[in-house]
Amino acid sequence: MAEQYSSFQRGGTRWVLQRLTAVFLIGVLAFHFMLLHFVNHAADITFLGTQARMSQVGYFATMWLFLVTATFHGVNGVYNALINMGLEGSRKRAVGGVLALAGLLLILQGTRVAIAMTNLL
Description:
Mean pLDDT: 89
Low-confidence stretches: none
Largest sheet: none
Number of helices: 4
Oligomer: single chain
Number of domains: 1
Radius of gyration: 18 Å
Strand content: under 5%
């Protein structure tokens, strides 16, 4: 039987964080679908409604954590998939740096948009 290779070290920090963020994302995604697709139908979603939801501290914090965990989960997953495909050496460091920068920029822009969607400022 062929041995399966994974860049994740079982029980390592990145391995545990990948699983924890997956669990969090499943829960928040379920909350999102329930609230914005079943309780409020897509046709009923308005900018003012979004602004009202984002102005609630708990909702804002949940959506911001959703942004951060989804970004980490995606960037970490892509990075490890590339490592599993044989990425190593200076290319591995370069790709890691680019992905980290892209993730940081995504979080910064997402935070700007989230803050703009509140009526707090």
